[in-house]
């Protein structure tokens, strides 16, 4: 019996050693070298303390490795919410199997968006947000044909929006809000080469006339709020569209609201602080709004009666030219 137990313990310990040895081999040596260079470039922050050269890099915090079909190469790098300073290391471009790259909520991350990111041909998800990155939205992003998701919000990016972004064939989400972008919305954003992405351009300094071409697209979500845009934004609407959210508030748009037909799917509509005229169409009372704000415009006439309209308080309607009826004072 004692001999059997000894043999069993020997077998288990040998298996454990073999498993540990195998686990150490999961990390591809080229990826480990690159990751350690990234750590050094970021001044060896405590946030990356788990990046120990003696351990398997696939077990490190802030990254993920793929399975055996890609030889356990690093496929995701997500560095966020840490005390990290410096610039995005150029070595990120030396992780050829990277599909997801995130640098987020790093207020001491500065400099331009790293050009070597253009080498990451497998990249589908890019989020560089809530940092102090400066410079332009880079043209080289259009070289990454697998990109589905781009979030560059809450930075200090400047310059114009590259029209070439519309050529990305798989793009589904484009978020450029909360920067210092200037110039017009590209005409090409009315003809994306793939499906029409959710588009977020709010809180910038964009100006000019809204391109008529945008009326050809069926945006599921579009947010152009808090810019200096002008023109007829009614082109964004249509009864046959599948739009869910439209926010064009705090611009200088001018159009007749009386003629606007809404998609049945539209649940959130914010038009406040523009120069919109006309009246609220009676059929809007049938729309199932979760949010509705037409305040600070030049609307007139009676607010349509109906539960879907009257459940909003006066702040959604006030400061118009001569709008009246509940929840505002009654019409004379």
Shape: elongated
Alpha-carbon distance between the two ends: 101 Å
Helical residue percent?
Answer: 10-25%
Largest sheet features: 11 strands, mixed
Number of β-strand runs? 21
Strand order, biggest sheet? Answer: 1-2-4-6-8-10-12-14-16-18-19
- The value of Rg in angstroms is 26 Å
Indicate the mean pLDDT: 93
Oligomer: single chain
Discrete helix count: 3
Low-confidence stretches: 1-23
Percent of residues in beta strands: 15-25%
Helix/strand structural class: alpha/beta
Describe, in plain words, how this protein is organized in 3D.
With 332 residues, the protein is an alpha/beta fold. Helix content is 12%, strand content 23%. The protein has three helices and 21 strands. It has helices at 2-24, 29-41, 307-310; strands spanning 63-65, 74-80, 85-87, 100-106, 108-110, 125-131, 134-135, 149-151, 156-159, 173-175, 180-183, 198-200, 205-209, 221-223, 228-231, 245-247, 252-253, 268-270, 291-293, 300-302, 322-324. The strands form four sheets. The protein has an eleven-stranded mixed sheet with strand order 1-2-4-6-8-10-12-14-16-18-19, with no helix packed on it. Strands 7-9-11-13-15-17 form a six-stranded parallel sheet, with no helix packed on it. Strand 1 (63-65) and strand 2 (74-80) form a beta hairpin. The protein is elongated, with a radius of gyration of 26 Å. The model is unreliable at 1-23 (pLDDT under 50).
């Amino acid at each position: 019996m004692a001999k059997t137990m000894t043999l069993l313990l020997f077998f288990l310990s040998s298996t454990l050693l073999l498993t540990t040895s195998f686990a150490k081999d999961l990390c591809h040596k080229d990826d480990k070298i690159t990751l350690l260079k990234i750590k050094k470039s970021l001044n060896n922050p405590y946030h990356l303390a788990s990046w120990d050269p003696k351990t398997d890099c696939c077990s490190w915090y802030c990254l993920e490795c793929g399975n055996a079909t890609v030889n356990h190469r690093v496929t995701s790098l997500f560095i966020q919410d840490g005390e990290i300073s410096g610039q995005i290391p150029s070595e990120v471009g030396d992780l050829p199997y990277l599909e997801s790259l995130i640098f987020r909520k790093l207020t001491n991350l500065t400099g331009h968006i790293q050009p070597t990111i253009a080498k990451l041909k497998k990249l589908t998800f890019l989020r560089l947000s809530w940092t102090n990155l400066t410079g332009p939205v880079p043209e080289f992003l259009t070289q990454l044909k697998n990109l589905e998701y781009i979030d560059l919000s809450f930075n200090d990016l400047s310059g114009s929006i590259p029209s070439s972004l519309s050529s990305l064939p798989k793009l589904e989400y484009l978020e450029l809000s909360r920067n210092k972008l200037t110039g017009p919305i590209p005409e090409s954003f009315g003809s994306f080469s793939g499906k029409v992405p959710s588009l977020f351009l709010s809180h910038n300094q964009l100006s000019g006339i809204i391109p008529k071409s945008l009326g050809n697209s069926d945006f599921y979500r579009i947010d152009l709020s808090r810019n200096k845009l002008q023109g007829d934004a009614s082109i964004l609407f249509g009864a046959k569209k599948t739009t869910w959210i439209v926010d064009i508030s705090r611009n200088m748009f001018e159009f007749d609201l009386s003629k606007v037909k809404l998609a049945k799917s539209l649940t959130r509509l914010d038009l406040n602080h523009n120069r919109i005229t006309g009246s609220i169409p009676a059929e809007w009372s049938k729309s199932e709004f979760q949010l509705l704000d037409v305040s600070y415009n030049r609307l007139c006439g009676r607010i349509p009666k109906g539960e879907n309209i009257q459940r909003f308080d006066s702040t959604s309607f006030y400061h118009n030219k001569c709008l009246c009826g509940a929840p505002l004072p009654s019409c004379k």
